[in-house]
Specification:
Layout (H helix, E strand, L loop, with lengths): L2 H21 L24 E2 L9 E3 L15 E6 L7 E10 L3 E10 L5 E3 L6 E3 L2 E2 L1 E7 L7 E5 L9 E7 L5 E9 L10 E6 L5 E5 L13 E4 L4 E4 L62 E3 L17 H13 L4 E6 L7 H22 L6 E5 L12 H7 L2 E7 L3
Parallel strand pairs: 8-13, 18-19
Antiparallel strand pairs: 1-4, 2-3, 3-13, 4-12, 5-11, 5-13, 5-14, 6-7, 9-10, 9-12, 15-16, 17-20, 18-20
Length: 410
């Protein structure tokens, strides 16, 4: 066989293995924690409104229609309602790759129900509480809001605390879109005003062919733990060996006739010393107690928020951990976290966004253990530019988060 044919065969099998590996990769949703600026009648970034035309869209909570519940993850969550005029809300998005027919998927999402959701009844035209529990329906389709196949439906979400709901999806056809829909308790005779809150959706994780997924092997399947930004897989539980039959133990050999080790055969081996720790490059070189002074502001590098958002991404953790380490080592230092934007949006929008970004950084540091009396936050909006707003490079410099040294405690 020629070298060319051998190389072709190896390339072919490598391509097949690569395709098989890709098929088992999780399908990651865009904005799975529904992060955005809190607002009513507009779905969060990355999600498309699938409500009935003429009706309002879902809400980015909290703070809308008297909903005051804290998010399960991040800073905001999704609120959807059912109405007494036989309309209900839903959101959809295009998947990063299609759901494959015949493949089983596992999916998890946190849901709860608010005992306050004050809005206008479509039948009485009076303000009423939309507080009855509803269910979540998950649809697969090939377009936004295309309800081609009902993939799953939850139990009634009637608890007022966040709860994890698990779903097994078994699509019969390939679907490029997924849709989440609030719906009445079924069967129901009359439509009613209800609400459903959603947060912290997992990736859609393939678990194998559906005909291989049987109840008697569930205990040995990998356990999938869902989070906001990844899916961790725990190894299957090891099987316990069956108890051995009661048989007489073999007689132990007489130790007197066992051969003794020869001294020349014993070699003392000294384990090698552990390698020195790898010193990582510091991101904030100027954040050093020997260099800083009171009143000084230092830009927190590598803190790249997505456009119009204020939630902390995993990629931001290294630099924020440097700020945490600095404050932990220097317990008398008091700082302010300041948020800044570029000069294009209106003042009110810039003030709100910069304030929320500064608060997000502050909350991260406080949750890691920095006392609240040592750290404050403030949003400056677009009032303190450091570069021109007429160029993209200048606007990038202006939209920043800084740490300002208020006191060294000396």
């Amino acid at each position: 066989m020629g070298k060319f044919k051998i190389a072709f065969i190896f390339s072919f099998f490598a391509m097949i293995l690569s395709i098989q590996g890709q098929d088992m990769e999780p399908i990651v949703l865009a904005n799975p924690s529904f992060e955005d600026l809190p607002r009513h009648s507009r779905p969060p970034r990355g999600w498309y409104d699938c409500g009935k035309p003429g009706e309002s869209a879902p809400d980015v909570q909290p703070g809308q229609f008297n909903v005051t519940k804290d998010p399960y993850d991040g800073f905001t969550f999704l609120g959807m309602v059912t109405r007494d005029n036989e309309t209900w809300e839903g959101v959809a998005q295009r998947l990063s790759k299609p759901l494959d027919p015949g493949t089983c998927y596992q999916f998890r999402i946190y849901m709860t129900h608010s005992d306050k959701y004050f809005s206008l009844s479509r039948t009485t035209m009076l303000d009423e509480y939309f507080i009855k529990p509803v269910t979540l329906r998950i649809w697969g389709g090939n377009g936004y809001c295309d309800k081609r196949e009902l993939l799953a439906e939850s139990d009634l979400v009637d608890k007022t605390e966040w709860e994890e709901f698990q779903f097994h999806l078994e699509p019969k056809r390939a679907y490029k879109f997924i849709m989440f829909e609030a719906f009445y308790k079924t069967p129901t005779l009359f439509p009613y005003n209800g609400n459903l809150l959603l947060d912290n959706a997992s990736a859609i994780v393939p678990t194998g062919k559906c005909d291989e997924w049987e109840e008697d092997i569930m205990d040995n399947e990998p356990q999938l733990i869902a989070s906001n930004d990844n899916v961790n897989v725990k190894p299957p539980k090891p099987k316990q060996d069956p108890k051995p039959d009661s048989k007489p133990k073999p007689k132990e050999e007489d130790p007197k006739i066992q051969p003794k080790p020869n001294q020349t055969d014993i070699i003392a081996v000294t384990p090698p010393p552990p390698p020195p720790p790898i010193k990582e490059d510091k991101i904030l070189e100027n954040l050093d107690i020997a260099k800083v002074k009171e009143g000084q502001s230092i830009r927190i590098e590598n803190l790249n928020f997505d456009a119009d958002t204020f939630y902390i991404k995993k990629s931001m953790h290294p630099v924020l951990n440097e700020v945490y380490d600095f404050l932990k080592e220097n317990r008398k230092v008091v700082v302010e976290i300041g948020g800044h934007t570029n000069g294009l949006p209106p003042h009110e929008y810039c003030n709100n966004l910069s304030n929320r970004r500064a608060k997000a950084v502050t909350d991260y540091l406080i949750k890691k253990g920095i006392p609240e009396n040592r750290i404050t936050f403030k949003g400056y909006g677009k009032t303190q530019p450091v570069a021109t707003n007429s160029s993209k490079a200048g606007r990038r410099k202006n939209q920043r988060v800084e740490i300002k040294i208020l006191s060294l405690g000396g």
